[in-house]
Amino acid sequence: MAENSATGARPDDFESRLRAAGIRITRPRKIILEILGDKADHPGAAEIYRRAQRIDPSISLATVYRTMKLLEDFGAVHRHAFDGGPSRFEVVDGDHHDHLIDLDTGKVIEFHSETIERLQEQIADELGYDIEHHRLELYGRKRRER
Amino acid sequence: MAENSATGARPDDFESRLRAAGIRITRPRKIILEILGDKADHPGAAEIYRRAQRIDPSISLATVYRTMKLLEDFGAVHRHAFDGGPSRFEVVDGDHHDHLIDLDTGKVIEFHSETIERLQEQIADELGYDIEHHRLELYGRKRRER
DNA sequence: ATATCTGCAAACCGTTTGCGGTGTA
DNA sequence: TACACCGCAAACGGTTTGCAGATAT
């Protein structure tokens, strides 16, 4: 397999980082990290649980939640609550981006606009605030061209 | 009292609009509309319930939720879930705006940027999507100047 | 008169937690 | 060995819902 260290955090990267922090790499955690490594989508806890169970049916939902919280506190994943729905998780790999959510499929598309980013900064500044974090989500449907 | 029809939807405006839609204006609903008329903040269901009870202690939390859903479906209020927390409601009065949430106080400051708005449109367009709605929230703390 | 609405309490759903046992370091 | 971790089931907090009685039109 080609190395891809440039893309940042792969599952095994996390393993070393977590190990270095004195966190035990258990079987459930290894499985969950493996699932998150796909990075193809933004699964919720239930979906992660489902996928994990296909690998090891003894995994519990509680462990999924505990592991997600662990990884979140560790800064390895971000938690989103799109449109007030259940949490969905995303592996953090350095580059900040915002999200466009396909209302028909639930699919999440990432995008980034440096201009918007700067405008946000500017607005907060004018209001006398320092931004800690922000959240920009576009909800839409695929344009149907004839 | 001075009239302020220019500001748009006052509680009594809603009463007529709701009545016109065949919805009964009951005592609980009148009270909740009155509370929402303040528009001073973005209260959650529990807070609306607390305020309503000070006026009529027999009001139930279930009715608050039912009324908020009714008003939401009616397009009279928007529901927000800032940072995944419980729903907070806001009376809709025509002008669209986004939110800056004070992380220390929970206070919500409204702002609007036509430029950001246009950029969002443009981004969605490039991705082949039509935006149905969007959500821009800045979370920050008051800048402490010496 | 009657369909809508209410309060109450129970159900619900996503998430967290206390427990006693298990497995990693 | 020792402590972090697990699965289980119960608890949790916010929200919704079924019911039988009350109320606006």
Biggest interface, and residues per chain?
A-B, 35 and 35 residues
Structural class of chain A: alpha+beta
Number of strands of chain A: 5
Major beta-sheet overview of chain A: 3 strands, mixed
**Assembly state of the chains shown:** homodimer
- Overall tally of domains of chain A: 2
Strand order of the largest sheet of chain A: 4-3-5
According to CATH, the homologous superfamily of the largest domain in chain A is: Winged helix-like DNA-binding domain superfamily/Winged helix DNA-binding domain
Mean pLDDT over the full residue set of chain A: 89
CATH topology of the largest domain in chain A: Arc Repressor Mutant, subunit A
Provide the descriptors you would attach to this structure in a database record.
homodimer, three-stranded mixed sheet, 2 domains, alpha+beta, two-stranded antiparallel ribbon, Dna Ligase, domain 1, 21% strand, 146 residues, Arc Repressor Mutant, subunit A, DNA-binding, disordered N terminus, 5 helices
Structural account:
Chain A has 146 residues and is α+β, with helices and mostly antiparallel strands. Chain A folds into two domains: 11-91, Winged helix-like DNA-binding domain superfamily/Winged helix DNA-binding domain (Arc Repressor Mutant, subunit A), CATH 1.10.10; 98-140, Ferric-uptake regulator, C-terminal dimerisarion domain (Dna Ligase, domain 1), CATH 3.30.1490.190. The first copy, chain A, has five helices and five strands; from the N terminus they run H-H-H-H-E-E-E-E-H-E. Chain A has helices at 11-20, 27-37, 45-55, 61-73, 114-126; strands at 77-80, 88-91, 98-102, 108-111, 129-142. In chain A, the strands form two sheets. A three-stranded mixed β-sheet of chain A has the order 4-3-5. A two-stranded antiparallel ribbon of chain A has the order 1-2. In chain A, a hairpin with a 7-residue loop joins strand 1 (77-80) and strand 2 (88-91). In chain A, helix 1 (11-20) crosses helix 2, helix 2 (27-37) packs across helix 3 and helix 3 packs across helix 4 (61-73). The termini of chain A are far apart. Mean pLDDT of chain A is 89; it is low at 1-9. The interface between A and B is medium-sized, with 35 and 35 residues. Strand 5 of chain A pairs antiparallel with strand 5 of chain B, so a sheet runs across the interface. Chain A binds a DNA duplex (25 and 25 nucleotides) through residues 22-29, 44-46, 58-63, 65-66, 69, 86-87.
